[in-house]
Design goal:
With 411 residues, this protein is an alpha/beta fold. It has 15 helices and 10 strands.
Length: 411
């Protein structure tokens, strides 16, 4: 009797959850199609904990249980297929405890699948929830996997998911040749306004893979997603895409402070309860900084004084002051410029703490490759003013938006 009651309650919970969801992700559409595109093929799956259906069941378990799908291997990006690796930690080759399938690491000694890792499969399936920002490494893993698929004659299928920032927001210059890296793998803006399926098509067709190779690519499109939708509006539950991107609105804040965060010079909330949502340090006066940032009158953003004592990471155990960033309209808010505007106001209010005069110079390269250009740092560091780099930061936006429309799968 107790087991029956549990099943009933679970069914009711799933029905309630389903009623709030406004879209079908790629895995839901694939299920609806009875996995037809995978029939008769040996399947490799690139995923992590975000790869779930609308009932929160993992793609791994779904494909492993499907009678007409032959799932033979798993591939783990940063954090691993089950999310058991910390940010930046190498992912190991292992066996998946639940299915017994081999798991090949795409975030360790090898970041691009080798011929040996692909020899037993016919098709690579990719399903990971991205956050819409170039420096988040999942899209780099996707692109390198596409490259490996092309070089080894394997099919590549993307199960599409929403861009949490929506499909209209584009910010930042294209990554330049001397700043191509795993955090800026492709020549796209910092915020690129495409779903992972749309981005895969653009990368493939615009010759962005090594030596201009193209893979046999197909995208299982979502149903119901619109470009104007941010993640909150989809009704989908959020699964942390990394430990410091824990909530539905977390992707809104990652580009707000992640660039400055590369220096570890001020706390951006990593190590406190609001990762990427604040700027604070021992030398900052909270009210003074909040007044300065609010005086900029940025649309869709409010800055609130905050007092904190981080539990770990930057300024662990120290009392610090600063501002919490509150985004009231993600479409209107300029997200990535906030990094530089805060650096500007900090240099003005506290001239002894200008970032490029005090921060660890050993981190300059990481800052540059995240920005996608050395010119951002060089130009900004002269006067510590956003106006000195604004035109450069925005120079590629219009052209990229025009290019992107060729690859839109959704209106």
């Amino acid at each position: 009797m107790k087991k029956i009651l549990t099943l009933v309650l679970l069914a009711l919970a799933c029905t309630s959850l389903q009623a709030q969801i406004r879209i079908m992700t790629g895995i839901e559409v694939l299920k609806d199609q009875n996995f037809k595109c995978l029939e008769g093929k040996r399947v490799g799956l690139i995923t992590n904990p975000t790869g779930v259906d609308n009932h929160m069941v993992s793609d791994i378990d779904i494909l492993a249980a499907a009678p007409n799908v032959n799932l033979v291997a798993l591939y783990g990006p940063e954090h691993g297929v089950r999310g058991n690796a910390h940010a930046g930690d190498a992912v190991s080759d292992e066996k998946d405890a639940a299915t017994g399938l081999p798991v090949y690491s795409l975030y360790g000694k090898t970041r691009k699948a080798t011929p040996e890792m692909l020899k037993d499969i016919d098709v690579l399936v990719y399903d990971i929830q991205d956050i819409g920002c170039r420096s988040f490494t999942y899209i780099s893993s996707m692109g390198l996997a596409m490259e490996a698929a092309a070089e080894n004659g394997k099919e590549f299928i993307v199960l599409d998911r929403p861009n949490p920032l929506g499909g209209l927001k584009v910010e930042g210059n294209l990554a330049e040749d001397d700043c191509i890296s795993f955090v800026s793998q492709f020549k796209i803006p910092y915020i690129y306004g495409l779903t992972c399926g749309e981005l895969a098509n653009l990368i493939n067709e615009e010759g962005m893979l090594k030596n201009g190779v193209k893979c046999k690519l197909s995208v299982v499109k979502m149903k119901g997603w619109k470009r104007k939708m941010d993640y909150v509006q989809t009704g989908l539950q959020w699964i942390p895409s990394s430990p410091h991107v824990p909530h539905t609105n977390s992707p809104f804040f990652y580009p707000v402070s992640g660039i400055l965060g590369e220096f570890g010079y001020v706390s951006i909330g990593v190590g406190y309860t609001i990762p990427f949502q604040m700027f604070a340090a021992p030398w900052i006066k909270a009210d003074e900084m909040a007044d300065a940032m609010n005086a900029l009158k940025l649309p869709g953003v409010i800055f609130r004084p905050i007092y904190a004592k981080p539990f770990y990471s930057v300024f662990s155990g120290q009392q610090i002051e600063g501002v919490q960033v509150h985004i009231t309209n993600v479409q209107k808010a300029p997200l990535s410029p906030i990094n530089f505007l805060f650096m500007q106001e900090m240099a003005r209010l506290y001239p002894d703490h200008k970032v490029f005069e005090q921060a660890d110079k050993g981190r300059y390269n990481m800052f540059d490759i995240v920005c996608g250009s050395k010119n951002i740092r060089k130009n900004f560091s002269m006067n510590h003013r956003w106006s000195d780099i604004e035109a450069y930061w925005n120079k590629d936006v219009k052209e990229f938006k025009e290019l992107s429309t060729k690859y839109y799968l959704y209106k």
